[in-house]
Amino acid sequence: MTKLLFTLLISSFTFMESPKLVKVKLTKTVSASIPEDFTQMTDDELADKYPSSRKPVIMFISPDKQIDFGMNIASQKFPGSDLNVLKDFYKANLYTLFNDIKIITEEIKKINGKEYIVFEFTSIVKPDEKSINPMSAIRKYSYIQYTLHNDFLVIFNFSCPESMKADWQETAGEIMESIKFSKS
Question: 3-class secondary structure for 25-76?
Answer without folding.
Answer: ECCCCEEEEEECCCEECCHHHHHHHCCCCCCCCEEEECCCCCCEEEEEEEEE
